[in-house]
Each structure stands twice: as C-alpha cells, then as structure tokens.
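hey so i finally got around to running both of the ones u sent me last week. sorry it took forever, my laptop kept dying halfway thru and i had to restart like 3 times lol. anyway pasting them below in the order u listed, first the sequence line then the structure token line for each. didnt double check formatting much so if smth looks off just lmk and ill redo it

first one:
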Amino acid sequence: MAVALRLVLLAALLKKAESPPLRCNDGEYPYNGQRCCKMCRAGTYVEEACTIPHTLGHCSPCTNGEDYTEHESGLNQCFPCEKCKPGYVMVKACTATSNTKCQCPEGYYCPPGCEECVKCRKRCPKGEVQVKSCSSTTDMECSPSSTGTTDSAHPMGIIITVVFSVIGIGIVIMIAILFKFRKRNSLSTLERVKESKSLISVNSDAPNTNPEMPGLRNKGSQNEESSNLMVGSTSEGSDPRKAPSAPMLQQSENPAFPSVPPNIPKKPVVKLIDGYSKTELNRIYFNLRNMVLLHDWSELMRKCGLTNNDIETLKFDHPRDINEAHYQMLLTLQNRKGIDGALRKLLDGLWELKLMSIYENVTNELIHHKIITRETRD
C-alpha cells in the first residue's frame, strides 16, 4: 500500500515537471501561474483578474492627487503620490498617470541622489568665466577665460555693457555742452572787457575842447594811472621805483565763473545713548551687508580696519555664499573693535567712501530706535 502511494506521488511530480512554464504575450501578466491576463492601462489598477486567459479583467481608476500608475501594468493597487520635502517647490501636481514633480527653488540646486538643496554660486573665481548657468540639478559651471566664453557673451553682461555705454555717452555729451556754454560766456565777458578798455582809451586820448573845464583831461589821465596801478603796471615814461606798490588782483581763470569755495558738508558727531537695545543695534549692524553694493564692500571693510588677508580668507572659506562671507567679516570686525567701535568704524567708512544715502539710512534708523544721537559740527 505504501509503495503504491509513493508511485502515485512520483507520477504526479513527473507530470508537473514535464508541463511547460506559463508564458504570456506582450501586454499581459501571469495570474497565479495559471493564466495570462491583459494589463490595465496607465492611470488604472487591476481590481479583479480575468477569468478567461488572454482577456482583460476589471480595471479601476487611480485618484488624481492621491495615487497614480505611470504605465500599463498588472498591479492590484496604485502608487501613493509623493509630497515635496521641505526646501523644495512643487513644479507639477500629482495626477492619475504621473507622480508629483518637485525641484529646488531658484538660486539652489540638488544633484541626483542629494538630500537637500544647495545654494548656487553667484560668480566664478578670479580668472574664470561662466560657461553654464545654475539649474535645479547642477551648480554654475566656470572655466578659465582662455577656454570659456567671456562675460560679455552672457545676456546679463550684454545688458550691463549697453547700459554703461549709454550712461557714458550721456556724460560725455553733458560735459561737452557745459564746456561749450562756459567757453561762450567767457568769450562774451572778454569781449565786454576789451570794449570797455577801448572806450577808456578813446576818451583819454581825445583833446579837451571845453576851455571852461580844464580839469577834464587831468581827471582822465588820473583814472588811467589808477587803472594801471590796479593791474600792477606803470604808464610809459614813469619811474617804477617811484610808483607806489599795489597788490595784484587775483582773478579767476574764467571770468564768467568766479571761483567759490565748495560747500563741503561737515561730518556729524555720533554719540551712543546709554541703555540702547543691543538686539536692535546688532540687527541694523548685520543688515548693512544687504545695503552696500558688492564692488564697494571690500573697500569698506578695509576702511573699517580689516586687512586684505582677512577679506580674502573669509571669501575663500565661503566660496558659494558671499552673503555668509560678508556676515563673517562684520562679525570679525565686531569681535576686534567691540560692538560700539565696530559701529563707529562702519559709519566712518561709509562717510569716507561718500556712500551718503546708505549713511543717512543707517543713522536715521539708529536714531529712530534711540541708539545714537547725531549732532552737526560748527
């Protein structure tokens, strides 16, 4: 009996081993290894498999904004939609046939496989030029200027070049107009002076035809001598040793525009108020890096007391974040000079560089928060 049972089992195993494996056509999937069913299209899933081989079972749709399937498949459920991680922005919402698409915001990038967005570089190192802009997946690419494109090939470089060219042409035209105007006024004044001298010469050389006024001729001669003395010369035939000395009149090179001392504003005296808010002072102090233009920043830091080595080192330590480098410069200055001394250095530097609008904005805000008083020197 046991031998017979073993023979039956062996026959069943041999029959199963001899049966060919289940093979499905393209666009079909195997169900339980028994039959092939047609796949459901993208945006749907298999709710019930087919009962007849090579036919379509029952497909149900995915829900927009909740789940999806991107391709035809034999899946028995849809994939859940992903949500954008913090620091990313959604560029395409999830649909029944596509997942949510997220990317880094403008000014940031995330290479494949990264965990969080990284800030793009704002400019290339010295001696290199930009060859590729920053995208959502790659940083700005730079190359040596001999092999890469020049800054003028970049659209922003072209715009800046055009703007500065127009400004330069305008300045040249204004200078030419002003020079022409001053020259014309100067010539007009010289002509009037020559005309008046000619009239004086004619009147002085004319004979005195009025016998009743014998002093008229002498008066004219006296005026002429007085005029000669005023300009530092003597009349013909006179002895210069006997002539009284008269100071030379200092005349402007351009009679139409006499020299006037320039009205140079005097630097105000800034005094800190006792009990001021250090929190507000620090906020205003560090916010200065958002007010000063990039090409003025290094010069301002040198005016405040940082060395070129300090500035270049901090730039090197933060090559991809110039705003952080500027923050570290301000922090270094504050650590060396103290919060009061650093503030005074910054205000003095702004004044020396003639950044008057920034100087006024900063001091007005400090006055508004009762941190300083400002008095004009006599």
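and the second one:
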Amino acid sequence: MTLHHVVVGVDGSLVSVRALDRAAEEAVRRGATLRVTYAVPDRDEAGPILASAASRVRERHPAVPVETRAVEDGAVRALARESADAVLTVVGTRGLGELAGRVCGAVSSRLAAQARSPLMVVRGERPYDDHRDVLLGPATGTDTEAARYALKEAESRGVRLCVLPARAEEAVAGFARAWTREQHPGVEAGSRTARTAPAQALLDATRDASVVVIGSRRPGGRHSGHLSPVAHTLLHHSHCPVVLVPMG
C-alpha cells in the first residue's frame, strides 16, 4: 500500500496552527494529501476548528488536497490510530518543553511511543527553514530505519545529512555514509565532533538543523511504550522539529 497522506493534529490553539503550517509544507514537499484531525468528545465541537484549518491551508497552498476528520476519542489514541497509514504524523509543542492545548498536551511520550509511522513534533521558535542540515541523532548500530529516513529527508531538501557520533553510535554514522555513497550520491554526509556532554552536544546541533531524526521503539515491540533518554531530551528541549521513526 502506498502511504500518501500527512496527518496533523489540531485543537484550535496557536501551537496547533504552527503544526498545521509545518504539516502543510511537508505535504507540499511530498506531493501528499493533508489530513487534518481533531479528537473531541463531541463531533459537533470540531466543525469550526476544522473549517478554519482547511481554509488556512487552501489559502496558502491551493494545490494541496485537504481532508478533515473529527474523531470522538482521546487525542493520543486517535492520532496513534491515524498514524498507521500515514507517511508522517505532525503535532506541536511550545517553548521550553511546555506542552499546550488538548492535542498538543497529548504530545507526550505516550504518543511518541505509540505512533506507527514517523512522528514529527514541531519544536523551536524560528521560522520554517528547509535549507538547513538534516541531523541524525545518536542511535544503535541496528537502527537503520532512522538512518534511511534521515537520508531521504536530506535528499528531498537538497541539504547535508549530519551525524553526531557518540561512542557505539559511530556505527550508525558509518552506515549512513556508506548508504549515501551507494544509493544517494547527491547527498553530502558528514559528522560533528562533540566537545561537550553528548546530550548537550546534540541539543546544540539542533540549533542549525532543519529537523533532527531519531529512532523509537515500534508499538508492540519488546520495549514499546518507553522512549530513550535522548528522545525525551529532544522532545522537551530541541531547537528544531523532531522526527521519531519507529524501529523494530
């Protein structure tokens, strides 16, 4: 089955508007449909919010097909379910790790651990910028899904892929560079030397990245439902959007 839509969770808050704008840009870049989802106790509540969101997208990106969906469920369950057949699911947060709004408040480790396809958490205060590097966060040597996703992101943006090596994570850096040479010769891959503690070095690197990509345990797996300390750090403090890619 071809995944050809981007899902975004909205709730009428300014935070979710930022997520909506970013999701629309991601849909444009992928040539995908944008599915705007609002999880509410009563569907009658959703009409004005969904209509406003669709109008905003159509005004800014008239060529992007837009679907709206009201779901009578909790935001985490609804968005986790919607993510199953999406190429990307997008949600928002606001500064310094504070979670806001009905949907954005549900962007916790529960949603990040339950998403069945890549989940983008829109962080950072600077305007959308697709021309900065893609950053691949520390992972294990078997985390090929995140490396592949990061490579494709760098290729579609026409930017460098940067890897921040840290002890055993050097294996991923080597894999990413080799995979680039063989299958993505147009992508320049490099690494950054960490001169501070690994967590701080990663956060510093997010200041100059368009997005940071990291692996997360796939729902139903042995370690599902739990995020790594690195993932928690990025979700609360990254200076750019974070994409969590489910892995085996």
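quick thing i noticed on the 2nd:
Helices lie at 14-30, 46-60, 75-82, 109-114, 144-157, 170-183, 198-205, 229-237.
anyway thats it, ttyl
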